[in-house]
C-alpha cells in the first residue's frame, strides 16, 4: 500500500507538471500572437499616415485615417484549437482602434510665450474649462504650474509634465485631468489648432467672437469643403 501511494503521488505530480507546462506554453503562444496583431495594427496606421502625408491635402475628417477600425473578433485566430469559441476557454479577444489628430485639441504648451503666461491663451483655456464643466481657476493653476516647472531652477518647482496624466504633478485631481483631456493635449512644442478636426467646443474657445452656434456652422461648412 505504501508503494502504491508513492507511485500515485509521483504520477499525480507528473500530470500536474505536464498540465502546467501546457498552460504556460498556451499563454506564451497567445501573448506572441497578440504582439503580432498589435504590430500589424501599428504598421497599418503608419501606412495610412504615410499615404496621407504624400497626398498634400489638408488634414480633415473625410480622409482614410479618420475611419476607425471596427471591432474585430480575434479569438479564433489567437487559438490553436477549433474549440476556442467555447465558453470555458477564457475571454474572447477583440481588436479595434482609431487614429486621432492631436491638433484637434488645444495644446497646453501654447500657454507660455517667451517664459511668460500669454493672457490671450489663458482666456482660451478658461473658456475650455467652462465648456467641460470645470471652474475657470483651473486654467490659472495649469498655466502657473507649467510656468513654474519650466523654470527648473527652484528646489520646490514641480516636475515638467510630459503628458496629460502628469498634470496631477501640478495639483490637479484625476477627474479634472480626465475632463481636460477631452479638449486639451500636451505636446512637446506649441502647435496651432486644426480647424478641420477640432470639436465645436474647441473652435468656440480658440476663435474669438463666435459661440457654439457659430462653431456648429463652421463644422458643417468644413464637411462640405476642408478649410
CATH-derived topology of the largest domain: Ribonucleotide Reductase Protein R1, domain 1
Mean pLDDT: 84
Output the radius of gyration: 26 Å
Number of domains: 2
> In what range is the share of β-strand residues?
5-15%
Name of the CATH architecture of the largest domain: Orthogonal Bundle
Tally of extended strands? 6
* Helix content, binned percent: 40-55%
Give the helix/strand class: mainly alpha
Global geometry: extended
Measured distance between first and last alpha carbons: 88 Å
- Uncertain stretches: 83-88
User: How many helical stretches?
Assistant: 7
CATH class of the largest domain: Mainly Alpha
Q: How would you spell out the order of helices and strands?
A: HEHEEEEHHHEHH
Biggest sheet: strands side by side, in what order? 1-2
Instruction: Please summarize the sheet with the most strands.
Output: 2 strands, antiparallel
Quaternary structure state of the chains depicted: single chain
Structure explained in plain terms:
This protein has 227 residues and is mainly α. It folds into two domains: 2-99, no CATH class; 104-224, Ribonucleotide Reductase Protein R1, domain 1, CATH 1.10.40. The protein is 50% helix and 7% strand. It has helices at 2-55, 75-78, 119-131, 137-151, 174-180, 200-206, 212-224; strands at 69-73, 94-97, 106-107, 112-113, 116-117, 184-185. The chain has a two-stranded antiparallel sheet with strand order 1-2. A hairpin with a 2-residue loop joins β4 and β5. α3 (119-131) packs across α4 (137-151), α3 runs antiparallel to α6 and α6 packs across α7. The longest helix has 54 residues, at 2-55. The radius of gyration is 26 Å and the shape is extended. The model is unreliable at 83-88 (pLDDT under 50).
Amino acid at each position: 500500500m505504501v508503494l502504491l501511494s508513492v507511485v500515485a503521488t509521483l504520477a499525480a505530480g507528473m500530470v500536474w507538471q505536464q498540465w502546467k507546462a501546457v498552460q504556460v506554453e498556451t499563454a506564451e503562444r497567445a501573448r506572441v500572437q497578440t504582439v503580432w496583431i498589435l504590430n500589424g495594427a501599428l504598421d497599418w496606421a503608419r501606412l495610412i499616415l504615410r499615404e496621407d502625408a504624400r497626398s498634400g491635402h489638408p488634414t480633415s475628417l473625410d480622409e482614410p485615417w479618420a475611419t476607425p477600425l471596427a471591432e474585430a473578433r480575434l479569438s479564433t485566430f489567437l487559438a490553436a484549437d477549433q474549440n476556442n469559441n467555447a465558453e470555458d476557454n477564457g475571454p474572447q479577444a477583440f481588436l479595434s482602434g482609431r487614429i486621432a489628430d492631436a491638433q484637434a485639441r488645444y495644446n497646453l504648451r501654447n500657454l507660455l510665450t517667451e517664459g511668460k503666461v500669454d493672457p490671450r491663451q489663458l482666456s482660451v483655456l478658461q473658456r475650455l474649462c467652462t465648456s467641460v464643466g470645470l471652474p475657470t481657476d483651473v486654467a490659472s493653476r495649469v498655466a502657473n504650474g507649467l510656468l513654474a516647472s519650466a523654470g527648473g531652477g527652484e528646489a520646490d518647482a514641480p516636475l515638467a509634465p510630459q503628458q496629460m496624466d502628469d498634470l496631477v504633478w501640478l495639483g490637479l485631481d484625476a477627474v479634472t485631468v480626465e475632463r481636460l483631456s477631452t479638449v486639451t493635449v500636451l505636446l512637446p512644442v506649441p502647435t496651432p489648432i486644426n480647424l478641420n478636426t477640432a470639436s465645436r467646443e474647441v473652435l468656440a474657445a480658440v476663435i474669438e467672437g463666435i459661440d457654439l452656434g457659430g462653431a456648429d456652422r463652421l463644422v458643417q461648412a468644413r464637411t462640405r469643403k476642408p478649410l
